[in-house]
Amino acid sequence: METGRREALRYLGYGIGEADGEILKLLCECERELQETADCRFLMREFPLVFTEDGKVDGGCFQTDSKSLRKNLAGCERVLVLAATLGAGVDRLLARYGRLKVSKAVVLQAASAAMIEAYLNELCGGWRAEYEKKGLYLRPRFSPGYGDFPLACQPQLLGGLEAAKRIGITLTDSLLMLPSKSVTAVIGVGKTKEPCLLEGCEACGKKDCAYRR
Amino acid sequence: MGILEEIRSRRVFFDGGTGSLLQAQGLKPGELPETWNLLHPERIVRLHLDYLDAGSDVLTTNTFGANRFKFKKEDGFSVKEIVTAAVKNARAAIRRAGHGFAALDLGPTGKLLRPYGELEFEDAVTAYKEVAEAGTKAGADLIIIETMGDSYEMKAAVLGAKEGSLLPVFATVTLDEKGKMLTGGGVEAVTALLEGLGVDGIGLNCGLGPIQLLPFVRQMASIASVPILVNPNAGLPRSQNGQTVYDIDSDAFAAAMQEIALAGASLLGGCCGTTPEHIRKMRAACEAIPLPEITDKERTVISSYSHAVTFGGRPVLIGERINPTGKPRFKQALRERDLTYILNVGAAQQESGADVLDVNVGLPGIDEPAVLEEVVKELQSVLDLPLQLDTSNPEAMERAMRCYNGKPLINSVNGKREVMEAVFPLVKRYGGVVVALCLDEAGIPKTADGRIEVAKKIYKTAASYGIGKKDILVDALCMAVSSDKNGALTTLETVRRVRDELGGKTVLGVSNVSFGLPMREHINAAFFLSALWNGLSAGIINPNSAAMMAVYDSFLVLTAQDENCGRYIAAYAEKEAEKKRERAEKAQRRSESGMAGAGNMPGPKGLAGGTGQPDVLVKAAGADGEFPELRRSILRGMPEAAGRAAEAALAAKDALELINKELIPALDEVGQGFEAGTVFLPQLLMSAEAAKAAFAVVKERLAADGSEQKKRGTVILATVKGDIHDIGKNIVKVLLENYSFEVMDLGRDVPPEEIVKAAVERHAPVVGLSALMTTTVPSMEATIAALHKDAPWVKIMVGGAVLTKEYADSIGADAYCKDAMASVNFASSVTESK
Description:
The structure holds two protein chains of two kinds. By secondary structure, chain A is of the alpha+beta class. Chain A has one domain (5-194): NADH Oxidase. Chain A has helices at 5-11, 21-37, 67-73, 88-100, 102-133, 154-161, 163-167, and strands at residues 41-48, 50-51, 57-58, 63-64, 76-85, 137-138, 170-171, 177-178, 182-190. In chain A, helix 2 (21-37) packs across helix 5 (102-133) and helix 4 (88-100) runs antiparallel to helix 5 (102-133). The longest helix of chain A is centred in the middle third of the chain and has 32 residues, at 102-133. The longest helix of chain B has 31 residues, at 566-596. Chain B is globular, with a radius of gyration of 31 Å.
């Protein structure tokens, strides 16, 4: 699977610059260990989507009054709810190097964050093509924490997918996902093709971020 | 007849899925099915009755998620209410049908256990115990723990079940298509763990269908000594119009379950997607298949969370280095709670080829039970090797066995009555293989005959506790040959006779034999080889010793235990090549010096770290400082080269001066580059690690000279309560240590009281707190307030993704540190102003 090296370097602070040989060597080593360790799994379910009179978004297994999600899903009648994870082994690897070699832990953090993104892109690409055959178009993926889409929706999203039981994603009391390299998101399904798909950094309002692409 | 007699007399069938059938009756996505025990008891009883009518003998109560983390009295239902109602519903159905058993169902808590999650192991045990107590009181006949993906949570559930109830316990885990649990363990590891804990039946459920589970059932049947229960899904799930559907029908399910029964499963049922129809057809297809014979497989096996190690095949290597005896540096690490040092000792042994790590932290003046528990938890969070818990303190042994994630090796018991009475109940309760020393009240027998007698006595006493011979490793004991010339011969005879006459397994602490002699490695290696030839099952050795490993690797080749000599070649081919290279280089140098006629000797090998630069230690001051290799290896982040360069530099320079004139300036240079944005975080850390390696060499010299480097004061670091993101804190730690601060790392998710306590005890001038989440900043604020109250002298620096200068000011911190260098600068400014 694609590991997203460019993204990993961006997370490490290199922006569009090049890293030197030692760092690249370390990054390659991390990518190799991740490929061996990561146990990529996902769940996806399609739900009917309803915009209620009082301004709420009802995605079948979750309800929220997030305005930014409402905007993101405008015009859609169905929604895909998804969760993906690199698995518990990656957290073990991160913990191991966090104790034994911090420089490697930092690079591993970046590489694994890039890997889960790449994994999601791959999955979404597949679904996009599948749905287009049916004349349906997918909106950009939107995760709790983007805009005002609250983390409080995490239990509903994960519950609706039975994610704890099926792929082992659990939540902490402060609603963080464990294993840490896990993502939940919703994707609107619309009948019209949006002219321009803005995702990730390009869709973000914070223009002065050090990690902006 | 009780369930345990029933399953030995005939084939017993469990029920099938619950969740999917309740959804068909109107359970909404996200709605908790357990609430229906109270809201719609008639529907639950109906479901149970349908299964009993279809031929199920055992009903699983609707309590999969009934635990204190999901149900709280204030939200409407208490755990006790739910569990009691669920068991009552099952009992009502059994009464109406006139047959059946009620199995109290325990599923995962939905929380991840520490160290990867937040849930304390003991809190998980308590939660399961609560359900077991309520279910038993309400009239359950047995307990089934199921759909477990984490071996540690499984252990907590079994302990909770057994501590809250005397009912029979069955336990099944969920595997992926590779045969692994979510946390990585396979069939062998989980079988070892569960049999060690003394459950009445083990098995597999959920996750996969019967076709995919078949090979794993076969594997389990070949090693398990208890009945096997298999409850598969109705095939593999897929999404159809937003609904989860399963890919095989009841006929295909029944046919596949026949295979499962023939593969060695005694008890059969279904999980997600299966219905009363699946059970009916399965029963019809499988009822006539004779029960498999349940035999004791006599396997001597221990496990970690990830894998099992068996004794009796390839001799097992137990690394002996995690032990303070005779190791000043290790003692210091224990006293200072420097767990990273201990982890590194463990990691190095694993790299050298150890199969198991002995863990001994016995040191006068330390709280051994607390420290052993802490060290075991740390080791098992970072390394995947099984551990040998080495202590003579029964309290330490119990605490370590309890928190250990697997089936441990225990070191040790002996023939003394008092010791056996203390150790065997623990082995029975938590599971384990125990090292049995051949000595008793009369001391160590002088002859092999005497030691065999003690071994027999230990076997016999163990059996009276229900512990089989398979769970004992006889330690034939080895006396120093310098004091007893027949010592080794007696030991070897004992090893051989335990194998031949008693059919037992053996272990030896090998290194003792050479006590009092020079070049001990010679004797150790020769003795180790002799013991291996006499049938030794496991050696407690130093795996970092090349001589010991050479003997071991050669033994495997000579006894046809190394297929195609693959292991040997992998270990030594590179060394052979290196030897040839060295010889060639030497010849080359000889011929060159012959030509030049001058002693142009190169410096120590490899200083430039394979960059192709000449390996010459240029001793000239300049831009590169006095020791350019040292500076360069730090700047480029090469720990080994830095260590060697420091070693070489020490020949010419005083240790303290080397720190101040070379190491610190090199570090400063990297730090300034980082601040200027020309050096990036990974490079900064690699340099820090290289400097650390150089410091280690210098410090050793200082220690040998009886002096030490002046510390710049203690800094206490912690990631605040509620937050488990500690990488930032770990980065700060590495840099602070480089700059000679004494760092006390309290870890992550640390409550304010603990931080205050440490600050007061150490009278620390600086405390550093990290938090990543907006949700945990309040916890940081509370910690700061507590520190201001009880440790008013402390300066507090904070950092983490969500913090800003303004935010830090508003919660009362003394400094906001945007990165690790800023933390070093702040801590320096505080300690220098004092």
